[in-house]
């Protein structure tokens, strides 16, 4: 079982000091994919970095302006190009004369879509500065390192805060839920590798964009990995039982999950299936959610 962390004390629009160097403002965009909403992190005092500014909602923009009053925003950092993370990056950067930093989205922003999949791509997202793995961004009293973590999306990047041995984990690891992997941009093999990469860093705290921080990092990531491995085993078992399509197996594989999340769950199954095909363990006729699959 994943030791989810779901308790979170907050008020929408309020700026909370959550660690010596970190403040957080949560946008009012709750939902089945965003939990209580997008948590925007402000790092430092006076000259600051803002991580994942979130959706372009007037109320939320005003809350950020109030939280940042009298300060200089030197960097606007974005973990990836989804609509609950990046749309406010450009308006915020222009307001403060800052640059937007992140990893570019794939040339074709389109992703596998399914009815009810709320989280989608921000087609307008273009960083001013393209970050490479290991790039360092700093300000007075704070140092951030870009940690490339493809998997949820191909351009997902986390940010390590050196002074607190913490990681802003975006959607790569979330305390309240597992992460959706959405082919063709999301890749399960990349995701497993990125989980191992983060685990090896031995961070003290993970600050996801949605939900509460994760304090027991290594056992949490171990449980995350074990969950994915168990899901893979369930898919193989379903194939062995005669299921040949992803839509047919999702209701039984995710019987305990909110049905609103089943379209997203189907995409995660597809990501697993794509990886199993790459490994030669599963054979496919066609591809995507309409493909037919069987054990090799």
Brief descriptors of the model:
296 residues; alpha/beta; seven-stranded mixed sheet; five-stranded mixed sheet
Task: Give an overview in words.
This protein is α/β, with parallel strands linked by helices and 296 residues long. Helix content is 27%, strand content 21%. The chain contains six helices and 14 strands. The chain has helices spanning 58-67, 89-96, 188-200, 217-240, 246-253, 262-278, and strands at residues 15-17, 22-26, 39-43, 47-51, 72-77, 99-102, 129-130, 136-139, 142-148, 157-161, 166-170, 205-208, 282-285, 292-295. Strands 1-2-3-4-5-6-7 form a seven-stranded mixed beta sheet, with helices on one face. The protein has a five-stranded mixed beta sheet with strand order 8-9-10-11-12, with no helix packed on it. Strands 13-14 form a two-stranded antiparallel ribbon. Helix 3 runs antiparallel to helix 4 (217-240) and helix 5 packs across helix 6. The longest helix has 24 residues, at 217-240. It is elongated. The model is unreliable at 111-116 (pLDDT under 50).
Briefly summarize what is shown:
With 296 residues, this protein is α/β, with parallel strands linked by helices.
- The helix/strand order is EEEEHEHEEEEEEHEHHHEE
Order of strands in the sheet with the most strands? 1-2-3-4-5-6-7
Approximate strand percentage = 15-25%
Helix content class: 25-40%
Give the count of helical stretches: 6
User: Cα-atom Rg, whole angstroms?
Assistant: 19 Å
- Give average pLDDT, whole number: 94
């Amino acid at each position: 079982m994943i030791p989810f962390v779901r308790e979170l004390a907050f008020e929408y629009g309020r700026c909370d000091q959550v660690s010596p160097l970190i403040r957080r403002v949560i946008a009012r965009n709750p939902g089945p994919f965003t939990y209580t909403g997008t948590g925007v992190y402000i790092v430092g005092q006076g000259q600051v970095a803002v991580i994942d500014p979130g959706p372009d909602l007037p109320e939320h923009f005003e809350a950020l302006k109030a939280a940042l009053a009298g300060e200089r925003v030197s960097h606007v950092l974005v973990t990836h190009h989804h609509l609950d993370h990046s749309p406010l990056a450009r308006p915020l950067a222009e307001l403060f004369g800052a640059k937007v930093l992140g990893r570019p989205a794939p040339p074709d922003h389109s992703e596998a879509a399914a009815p009810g999949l709320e989280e989608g791509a921000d087609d307008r997202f273009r960083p001013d500065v393209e970050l490479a793995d290991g790039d360092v961004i700093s300000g007075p009293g704070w140092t951030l390192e870009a940690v490339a973590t493809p998997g949820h999306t191909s351009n997902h990047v986390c940010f390590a805060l050196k002074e607190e041995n913490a990681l802003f984990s975006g959607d790569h690891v979330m305390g309240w839920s597992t992460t959706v992997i959405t082919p063709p941009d999301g890749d399960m093999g990349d995701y497993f590798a990125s989980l191992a990469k983060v685990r090896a860093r031995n961070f003290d705290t993970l600050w996801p964009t949605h939900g509460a921080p994760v304090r027991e990092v290594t056992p949490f990531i171990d449980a995350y990995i074990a969950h994915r491995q168990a899901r893979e085993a369930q898919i193989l078992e379903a194939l062995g039982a005669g299921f040949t399509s992803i839509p047919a197996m999702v209701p039984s594989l995710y019987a305990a999950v909110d049905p609103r999340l089943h379209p997203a769950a189907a995409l995660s199954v597809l990501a697993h299936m794509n990886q199993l095909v790459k490994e030669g363990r599963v054979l496919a006729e066609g591809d995507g959610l309409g493909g037919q699959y069987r054990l090799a």
